[in-house]
Amino acid sequence: MFKIIVIILFKMGRDPVKLLLRTDVDLARIISNVGKYSIEIHDNPFESLVRSIIYQQLAGKSANAIFQRFIGFYGNSFPLPNQIVDTDAMILRKIGLSYKKITYVKDLSTKITMGELLLDKLVNLSDEQVISELVKVKGIGRWTAEMFLIFCLKREDVFPLSDLGIKKAIKLLYNLDTLPSNEFIVSKSAKWRPYRSIAAWYLWKSLNNFTTIG
Predict the structure, then answer these.
(1) How many Å apart are CA 143 and CA 63, to the nearest integer?
(2) SS3 state of residue 159
(3) How far apart are CA 51 and CA 29, in angstroms?
(4) What pTM was estimated for this model as a whole?
(5) Among 26, 86, 157, 163, which one carries the catalytic annotation?
């Protein structure tokens, strides 16, 4: 999937990484250290959202263990929304999902099954419209919707202000004593438009913490 993205960008005469290198000497240090841009895209929108819910507020290894047990229960293939709707909550609890996350994945699955959320239509919406649709689901806030935009819909100019990893990376990048304010982040990230998603990826990678967020 990464190779497909790169080919598309170059065919359109754009090289986002080179542009970022020229635009910001500070970010350029991170890009040089991290190396090749190789984002992992999630092709299945439903799986991407369920995965994000399961991973919420958990360390990467713990979340991955629960996610693998979740898939294993359904025969090691990702379940359809109606299968999750029909799964007893206690089974999901034994797999390792909290009661809140059970409510969240079931609400997502129900909304899709009932036609209240049309995932295949999201690709035609603007970033803010996608966020507006997704936050109607219990347990999906702006951060989860932004991860979906970046890692599933391949949107290039999304910058998750509330992400702790982003805040930590910017703190280190600019040698700050405390985590930066949203105003500081907005100011610094403005120069990374229209490729703030790519800049965010490099910031995450700079912390060696990429597997915990997407």
Answers:
(1) 17
(2) coil
(3) 32
(4) 0.85
(5) 163
